[in-house]
Structure formats: structure tokens, C-alpha cells
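Listing S7. Sequence submitted for prediction.
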Amino acid sequence: MKLRPGPRALTCAGVIALLSVGVFFWTPMAALLSISVVLLAGAAEYDRRQARQRMSGIAVSRSLPVVIGRDCPFLSTLTLTNSGEVKLVGEVRDVCPDDCDPPLLNSSINISAGGSVDVIHTCRIPRRGMHVFGPVWVRIAGPMGLVEVQQSFECPGAIRVLPETFASREKLVKDFGAQLQLLDRITRTRQHGSGTEFESLHPFREGDDPRRIDWRASAKHGSPIVRRFQVERHRDVMILIDCGRLMGSLTDTGSKLDCAVDAALNLSRVALQSGDRCGVAAYDRVVRGFLPPQSGINSLGNIVESVYDLQTEWFEADFTRIHAELQSRQGKRSLLVILSDLSDAETSRLQCTALRQLSRRHLVLFAALRTPLLNRVVHETPHSIVDGARHAVTYRLIRDRAQALHALERSGVHILDVEPHQLTLPLINQFVELRQRNLL
């Protein structure tokens, strides 16, 4: 508990300082000033005791949502209860996380005896991850306003910030509309087609493949019976998220890494709902995390915990590290979904070599996230030699990237080249298409 002079104490001290000048003109003024100082000190001590007693009757509790979407508004509520017998007037300050907007929450409080009051603020946090609020500081003045008592209350509150479309299913529906309804219909119904997993027996109808007639069942029923198959379930899907330097580029909806994590979590939900096993890994110059494929929609919580707080540390990504990890830990043929991008020719060559090696064992989908800054530079009109040099470098980067993606596609890697903020729906649709084609 800390003490500080109140506004009236400062006023009294200023008056005494002015009156002290009168000592040079009237000697008895010194005695009067001494008595005034003693009385002021006594009053301040009484005020301090009363303020401490009032502070001891205050209790503070906090209410926060457990999960919110990135940069989505939410309410932070502090409840202050006064168990004392007198009315309290003061201030409360809540210490927010560094990334919170606003960073500090200050409010005046007026709590009746035996009552309580709620202090509510609207906040935003534009950065994914776990964010902790607290402590809370409360300042109460004494009855005479000479002394103020300030005390901190340890009532921390933690809040998880997830990608906005993953945290809100309604926002995903609003953004993608009818296309997402088509996706839901595909993933929630049995997927009949050219799969090899037996589903059921049905009477032969015009248009059925005669090669699928079950002769034993037909002889038993006295009419042609065909076997129907569905697309295989319980296959492994591994999502690899690049956290390197290139993924820190800003877009209209956060960084490229923000868009990648958002798309990865939504794809994980679709894969698990489809009956597949899903895992996730993150890497830059080292492997940041590796969660092997798991089954069941309940596994989505583990995937969220693994990736929702990923941040780029501005290291150059080294795909050979995660390639070695996959070779040792993921021997079963799987669908590998890689959310990354390609940069200079040398780095692209090494990454493309590793991807081609992986495509010999696995089905590889490489989602290349474009860098919006390159597109903006291309469409700018050069006005100087420096601008011309920027255009030349930009065109070369775009050319090298296009050549690398073309080479990957020719080697059997499936390519998805999109803007970062448009990644989620094309990625899920590509997954659904590959699943229906039964390429695994």
C-alpha cells in the first residue's frame, strides 16, 4: 500500500509557504505557522488511518471472455465491492497487455456503503496469442482529502486471441456465403465416388458400373446388386506453417502469418469433421513445433494450442529442417499442406528440391502466399532511378517466384498461388477436391 498527498494537502502546504514570508515582518507569525504545521500533520495522520481502513474494505474481481478474435472488440469488466460503512470516492486503473488498445484503463469510482460498481471498458487486441491483464490499482482519498492511499490488487485475467474468422464461425459464413454452405454439405455427407472404401450394397440402377456388381449378393436376392464405395476416411493431413521472415509481411488483414494460421485452423476443423487425422507443424530456421496427426473433432483444441500464438522472429526459413523431421516422424503417406512462400533463387532451389523429394512419398499441396508489397511496387509509376531499380528488382523476384512454382507443379506438387487474405476458402476447396479425387 502506497501513500501520496491529496489535493487539499498540497493546497495547505502552498498556503503555509506563502504565509512563511510574513515571518520577516511579524515575528509571532513563526509560532502560528508552527502550530499550523503540527495541526496539519495531525490531520494528515488521521486522514491516512481512515483511508487505510476504507481501502481494507475493497474487493476487486475481473470478468473477461476466454477467447476472442484478433482485433475484435470485447468487454473488460472490473467489479469493485465496498464492504465498509462509508461511501468511497476514488480512481481505478487497470494495467492491460502491451498490445491492448487502449494500453491503460482509468476510471473514476463512486461506491456506496455496502455496494458495488462495475467498471466496463471496450478493448481490442490486434495480436494473436495469450495476453494477461493485471494488476488493478485503486486509489482512495481520506475523508479530509489530505492523504490518498493507493493499493494494487492481484486479479490477473488471461485471454486467448485467435484468428478472427476461426474464433467466429459466423464471420466465416458472412465472408464466404454460399460457397461455405456448399463446403458444409460436402463434408457433412457421405462422399460417394471413386473411392475404394466399401460403403453399402444397393440395387443396380441404370448408369451404375457393371464391374461393381456383387454376383454373390445378386444370386442371393435374385436381382443385380452393386457395391457402392465412399472416399476413404482416417487419412493423415499434415499442415506445415512457415514462420520465417517472408511471413512477416503486412497485408490488409494483418501479417501473412496471421492469414496462414487462420487458414490452417479452419482447414484443420474441416479435415477433422471429414473423418481424417490432422496434425500441424511450424518452422523457421528450426522446427518450432510438431504435433502428429490426431483424429476426432476434440483434437482441434490441441491444434489450436499449438499454433494460435505463433509469431515470426524474422529468421530466414530453412525448409530442410522440417523436411528431415517429416522424413523421420511421418512415414505414412499423407497430404502435406505447406503454407509458405518462395523468395530468392537460391532459397527457392533448396526448398523446391526438398518438396520434390517429399512428393515422391506424400501428396503435397504448396500454398504460396503472395507479398502485397510487390504488387504495389509493380503498379507504381517510377519517377527516379531509384524507383526504376526497385521495379527491376521486383520484376526479377516475381519472375523467379513464378518459375519456381512452375517447376514445382511440373514435378507433381499441387500449387495454390493466392493473396494472403484470400487463402482460407481456396485452400479448403482445394483440400476437398483432392480428397474427392482420392489421390491418397
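Caption to Listing S7: primary sequence and predicted C-alpha cells for the chain studied. The domain at 1-162 is CATH 2.60.40.10 (Immunoglobulin-like). Confidence is low (pLDDT under 50) at residues 180-195.
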